[in-house]
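pasting for ref. prot 1 ->
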Amino acid sequence: MAKTWWYVIAAVAALALVVAAAQELGTPSRQAAESPIRPSVPAGTPAPQVPAGFPGADTTGVPPGTPLTEVTGDRTFAKDGEVVEGKVFYGFVVVTASNVTFRKCVFRGGPTQDVRPLLDTEHARGTVVEDSEFHPTHPSASIDGIWAAHTEIYRSEFRGTVDGIKAHTGTLVQDSWIHDLGWFASDPDQGGEPTHNDGVQAFADQTGVTLRHNTIDLSTTKDPNAAVQSSADELRVEGNYLDGGGCVVNIDHTPLGRPLTGQRVTGNRFGRNSAHDCPILLSTRSELRAAEGNVWHDTGDPIPAPEQHD
């Protein structure tokens, strides 16, 4: 009899082990479940078309399969030299320290009535952003991707915000993808008029903004202003694919009231989706120091000379 009970106990224990193993296999870890690298899109939605050799879905953003940990609520990073990796931020992020690095992070923000970016590095120095994504959970006319100063951005994707990047002094954007920005009929930052979407906007009294080998494509954004809008000195736009806007690149001295210096737009390929068939617009006191190698992407022919007016 004792031997029979021993067999029963052994069988029950074995069954418990099988059930536990099945549960372990069927339930993903919390960290693995929080890896929404690229949300699914409705069936039949065409993928954004990126020219061969330029940054797109396969070369920007968080690599597929990267484990991500959710961070809820607004965060400020004030510790010099901090490295932040593998996070999804459901809140707005501000950096005030020096030499902070974000690696393989997703910036989603949250609901807000204030005009603000998903990531703000304006008051920091030496910030680096690598292999990251910016797309808001709650898109609105108030939300940009990043407001950047003294910041280097590599292999990152921006979509769904009003502006991709607002660039201040010492901003480098390289090997990144800005596309499908969010248009809204009423923008508090535009006095209630529609949004004024720019892929990258560089500001007056700033200097040293460099855009190198990016895809900045506003051709699928409703009524965009420009792929690149700049009033900064020492602007360099080098080797990018650029499309969309009234004019694709708009260089404007008028916020300064003086000539702009050091403007270089070289080696870029232009799409043909500007509203005014205008690859480059210069204001009357803006002059390109260098403009060689800019061509239409579809033919390889040189683009026309810049239009020049205020």
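and prot 2 ->
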Amino acid sequence: MKDKNSSIDTKKAIVILSRATALVALFFIVIVGIFISSLFYSGKTVFNALAVIKETPTSSIPGVAKLSQIANVIIPEDHSWKAPDESTIPSGKEGDQIKYGKELIAHTAKYLGPKGTVLHMSNGMNCQNCHNEGGTKSFGFNYSAVKSTYPQFKARSNSIVSITGRINGCFQRSLNGVTLDTTSKEMRAMVAYMKWLGKDVAKGVKPKNSGIMKLPFLDRAADPLKGKAVFVKNCVSCHGKNGEGLIAPSGVEYIYPALWGKNSYNDGAGLYRITNFAGFVKNNMPFGVNYQHPILSDDESWDVAAFVNSQPRPHKDQSKDWKDISKKNIDFPFGPYVDQFSEKRHKYGPYQLIVKAQKNAK
């Protein structure tokens, strides 16, 4: 009987030891995963998917959800920048200025639009329509690099551009308006907010998740006709069938901005370049999408960018831009160019041969 009990105890011990070994191995795998993910950055890596597995039960990575739950581990997002918590905004006049700056970014038209309470100087869009979530969203044209990289040389104007100069560029192009007095309360507030957002970014550093995530070039031209189908399926519910956007009940600002027509950005805006529009829409649209959970494919993003930018919009005189045409962006849709490709080719692509031609011209 004693030998039998001893045998049972031995078997129990083996089972317990096996389970413990399995858990230790499982924990080791997760730790290795964290280490590897800290070394390599990719918007679509398995480890980014693991980070949000609890919020995404339908993950396409079999078994990862169970692994995350067993180990009770949340893999950190592989970002280089995260907006500071608003609780860290200082008190007093400095804090009030930063908060006013954020308000101006989120509700620009309320203060500076056609029915603005301060000035009437823009088209009714808000800065936040492009700089998503008050300029804090990853790959949503956030402001993380403003303080660290400005002033900077801009080839388009062939000059050193300050933060205020860059803001006024947006007012003139994206908001199809006029410049704002650089000494005004509003300008100083917007600059203060942007500097506060980037306060922890070292000088000269551009965080990985700033700006937008540029997409690989297509091996064909972006197609406005295909893009129209993408727009009808994914964009009409917010932006309207004629791209007119949705005005708030106040009639003062847009809930969803106009994508073309007299109230939209003009043809000098950054989003009029479809490499920018495609990268932006891929990781931010339809509304609520982020770079970790895109809905549109790369092809759909290129094509809808082509469709939107094939529609009529205000024109801006750009005759004084690009003193050195060799520095023009390849998708800038207005000549002259250093190569022999047409404006249409520069606007819609394909771009590979343009890149090659411009390299050979230097």
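The chain has a mean pLDDT of 85.
The domain at 86-197 is CATH 1.10.760.10 (Cytochrome Bc1 Complex; Chain D, domain 2).
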